[in-house]
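Chapter review: from sequence to fold.
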Amino acid sequence: KALLQVAGKNRRDFAIVMLFLQTGLRVSELVNLRLGDVSMETKELTVRQGKGRKDRVVPLVGQAPEALKAYLKVRVPSLEYDHVFLARNATSMHQRTVRYRIQKYYEEAGIKKKGSVHTLRHTFATHQVHNGLKINQLKEVLGHKKMETTYKYVHLDGTNLRQEMEQGAL
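The token string follows.
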């Protein structure tokens, strides 16, 4: 919440943080998003050729569609670039820029715990599982080939794990 609050002063950066937290995108996938990959009608993003060279569709949920819509209203038009997120000079954003901005917001928010863009992906995964998303569905949203990779993203505390196991006990 603190991260969103400090990023909220900039519509582009707020939309970026919101997308990381609500979609679990990788930074490379975020900077490669094109305007044609966003559907406000169906509230979905198409991630093209993510890691593993496979396209996937990710739902836009929570505040993500509104944050993205608010940014797109003020986005500077570019004749050369159809990327969703543009740098100040109306060129495509670089991954380093996104990482730098997120790190800056961590500091501004007073978050002492070490964090990164990738931490937001882990946060997304953990929250989704805690809120009932099945691990196999999460695997698809994150774009993982192997279930083992998805398990590394999910930080279950002992109480939830115990509760789930109790419900499934014979």
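Two observations follow directly from the output. Residues 76 and 88 are 9 Å apart (CA to CA). The radius of gyration is 17 Å.
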